[in-house]
Predict the 3D structure of the following.
Amino acid sequence: MRLRHLQDRLRAHIRARIDRGEMTGAGLSRKAGFQQGHLSNFLNARRGLSLESMDRLLQTLRISVLDLVDPEDIQRRAIIPDGSAGAENVVVVSADRAARLARFAPRQVEETIRFSRSFLRRLRPNDVGNRSDWLRFVLIRLNPSAARAVVPRTRVSAIVLIDRHYNSLEPYRRLQPNLYAVRINGGCAIGSVSLAGNHLVLQPRNSQFPVEVVRIERSRSYSDYIVGRVCHVAVEV
């Protein structure tokens, strides 16, 4: 990937975080030691950045160059093909990382699992806010206790595929509630979701499990707490 393309991705990353209210252009300029006009010109593609300036921005944003590279590009170079031309690698990460990180460094990925590319591309996103810089599909493992909240009769672990570009409460299928991964206590809980005033209510599929209630902070939207829509559940045996 050329430096110009990396800078385009950096622009998109910064705009997305500003759109989500995570930062302001003025605040980023101040922390990085830039003139505000200098950063504005960069974000509006009126000028590029030197390598030194780009490095300062990456350090201020606490990301690396790898966070700007399309994971598919990395996978094409790092993973030996296994003959499944119609397959795509999806990363397995911990629940807390799936809940809070837009992208993942190689050391944060536990493994990759191959999914049908046509299946993944048929799934419709519904992004409230701007998550264009987030890696869309991730997998998390559920231990046997957490798995029973999703698949009531199982007593083994499970793995769930999460579409992090779907954080809307709009039903994916008419008259059928979505299943979501929701950010709770630094990790993810799985269930259907509804709004009650300024609280997000999560109902596990297994009625023996308690309902979880998350208070929505004044400056945030319900969508900030939704990690993504669960679009596939596999029980591990």
Summary: Helices lie at 3-19, 25-32, 36-43, 51-61, 71-78, 95-100, 117-122, 144-148.
